[in-house]
Design a protein that fits this description.
Layout: E1 2-4, H1 54-68, H2 77-97, H3 104-119, H4 121-131, H5 139-145, H6 147-150, H7 157-168, E2 176-180, E3 185-186, E4 190-197, E5 202-208, H8 212-226, H9 235-240, H10 242-256, H11 259-276, E6 281-282, E7 286-291, E8 295-299, E9 304-305, H12 309-314, H13 319-337, E10 339-341, E11 349-351, E12 357-359, E13 365-367, H14 370-384, H15 388-398, H16 407-413, H17 428-445, H18 451-465, H19 467-470, H20 476-499, H21 510-516, H22 528-549, H23 554-564
Parallel strand pairs: 6-12
Antiparallel strand pairs: 1-2, 2-4, 3-4, 4-5, 5-8, 7-8, 9-11, 10-13, 11-12
Length: 567
């Protein structure tokens, strides 16, 4: 139903922008926008009254997140009890009827999803993050929690209207000639609506849910109080470091509560894409004035849903090229500029008629300081050249391993200096034994998953998984070679200068990739379908072992995570 009413990244020497609007010089935007982006003239970037500029607002959000996760910050007893009732009830019902059955995990996932939904925005957001962790979390949980992405019940329109009018300081009719009451999507923090401005532009309006800020603060305090109690009690929590995960969750969700920061993220990532000359991905333009803490008006972009490659191909779009350019753009932002979209999933991507990708929803953005950015760069270059020492050193510098770790000993203990073993030649017992030894060694070293690495890996897993629909018959080795060649040709000198690796002479090790995927030397092509067949064989063996032995799914999840990354 429609109501009808009477700091950005600064790349040095950016390439010359293509023909089109003048703001293509400062960002990767659409070729025909409703307005021009001039960061210096955007009123919301510079604060009003007692509020600071965007940089000050970001620091305020960081301080609030740190305060909420301090151990001394006691949670609400009432909230702890309500969480216990909701989640405990789901677990009890599952234990009585489905535990130990072939549908055990699916049944538990079905019961947890509505429990998370009833617990409100914070838990819905946590569920959405889990839903984007394909390859990290069990597939049944990921599949069920995907329903939290855009099927969260919307807020009543009177509450939406009140938020809009309070933040914009005007009646709705003074800003919009029409406003669609039915949201395009409804998520944990906000919902988005189509609208038309009085100046005639069609826009998308993101509106924050009422009361969400106070609910989030209360829930984070409870999570931070519980998280330290989990450390060392079960292997999966030791590896993922629950306090660090809560820190990450607090930082991201607190920033998401201020849409001025999201709008700045849009400008920053658009500037990175423009700086690299990578125009295969575009960002919606935020409005110059209609951005507040709880309201974000932006350019409306159209395209095919990411999950509809058949329609793309019917329209003449090369879906494999779309996937490759998306991967390159993501890696350039992370490895060269230290800024990347931190929540890639199908709901945040549209493929436009010309094959460019429209990137949406910038509430979660990864930001790396120079040292961590260079560590990421060493990790990826080390992977492409099969330099194990460089990879382990990079993981140490990222914080995944203690700073005083003996790198040579880690390599020897984990057998990283030995030829890769084809997992399809192992029995289920042998695979489980291998995984137990690796897990035991990692825990002994004090390994955990740093916050930035979790976002990066989650995005890489999404792009890797997208091959199943976007490029199932494309040669994976050829794609790896194409991406490495691109970085060598476009950024080889910079990479050599920054980390001391001459990527023009340290050739890519395709044999290492073949071995890591379990294929014999000399295999000329490996498609995603080939890889899927091998993964399915391994999955069936582990499933059979799991049912026979009654083991927890943790090691199976570790196996799936490792096997999903060909490099």
């Amino acid at each position: 139903m429609v109501d009808h009413l009477t700091h950005a990244a600064d790349p040095a020497e950016p390439p010359t922008p293509p023909d089109g609007p003048a703001d293509l010089a400062v960002g990767a935007f659409s070729a025909a926008g409703p307005w021009l982006v001039d960061p210096a003239a955007m009123s919301w970037r510079h604060g009003r009254g007692t509020e600071g500029d965007v940089d000050a607002l970001r620091e305020q959000a960081a301080r609030l997140a740190r305060a909420l996760v301090r151990p001394a910050h006691l949670p609400s007893l009432a909230r702890v009890l309500s969480v216990g009732v909701r989640l405990g009830g789901a677990l009890v019902a599952w234990g009585r009827t489905e535990r130990g059955t072939p549908t055990s995990r699916a049944g538990l996932s079905r019961r947890l999803r509505p429990a998370f939904e009833r617990l409100g925005p914070t838990y819905i957001k946590l569920g959405q993050i889990i839903s984007a962790g394909e390859g990290i979390f069990p597939e049944e949980l990921v599949r069920e929690f995907r329903l939290l992405r855009d099927r969260v019940p919307p807020e009543p329109f009177p509450l939406v209207r009140r938020t809009l009018e309070e933040d914009l300081g005007r009646p709705l009719a003074a800003v919009f000639t029409s406003f669609d009451r039915t949201p395009l999507a409804s998520a944990s923090i906000a919902q988005v609506h189509r609208a038309t401005l009085r100046t005639g532009e069609r826009v998308v309006v993101k509106v924050q849910r009422s009361r969400v800020a106070s609910l989030v603060r209360r829930d984070i305090a409870a999570m931070a109080w519980i998280a330290p109690q989990l450390v060392g009690r079960i292997p999966v929590t030791a590896l993922t470091n629950p306090p660090a995960l809560v820190d990450l969750f607090a930082e991201t969700i607190v920033e998401e509560l201020d849409f001025r920061l999201e709008a700045q993220n849009m400008l920053d990532i658009a500037a990175v894409f423009a700086g690299t000359g990578q125009r295969a991905v575009v960002v919606p333009r935020p409005h110059p004035d209609l951005v507040t803490r709880r309201v974000l008006v932006m350019e409306e972009l159209h395209g095919f849903p990411w999950g509809d490659p058949a329609s793309m191909r019917d329209a003449g779009i090369d879906t494999a090229a779309v996937l490759r350019s998306s991967l390159i753009s993501f890696l350039e932002g992370a490895l060269l500029y230290g800024v990347f979209h931190g929540d890639l999933h199908g709901g945040n991507l549209l493929v436009q008629a010309d094959g460019t990708v429209a990137l949406l929803d910038f509430g979660i953005t990864g930001r790396l300081d120079p040292a961590k950015r260079q560590a990421f760069l060493r990790l990826e270059v080390g992977a492409s050249t099969n330099n194990v020492t460089a990879q382990v050193e990079a993981l140490r510098d990222l914080g995944a391993l203690p700073p005083d770790i003996d790198v040579a000993r880690v390599i020897a203990d984990l057998g990283l200096d030995r030829p890769a073993v084809d997992p399809t030649t192992l029995t289920a017992d042998e695979m489980m034994a291998e995984l137990r030894e690796v897990t035991k060694a990692l825990l002994g070293y004090g390994a955990h998953l740093p916050k930035e690495l979790m976002l990066f890996v989650k995005d890489m897993l999404f792009l890797n998984g997208a091959m199943a629909t976007m490029a199932p018959d494309v040669d994976i080795l050829g794609e790896v070679l194409a991406v490495v060649t691109y970085f060598t040709e476009h950024h080889g000198e910079r990479i050599a200068r920054e980390i001391g690796f001459d990527v023009t002479t340290d050739a890519i090790d395709l044999e290492g990739y073949r071995a890591a995927m379990g294929f014999a030397d000399g295999t000329e092509t490996i498609t995603f379908r080939d890889l899927q067949e091998r993964r399915e064989l391994i999955r069936k063996r582990l499933d059979h072992h799991h049912r026979a032995q009654g083991r927890t799914p943790f090691l199976r999840a570790v196996a799936r995570t490792v096997l999903r990354r060909p490099g």
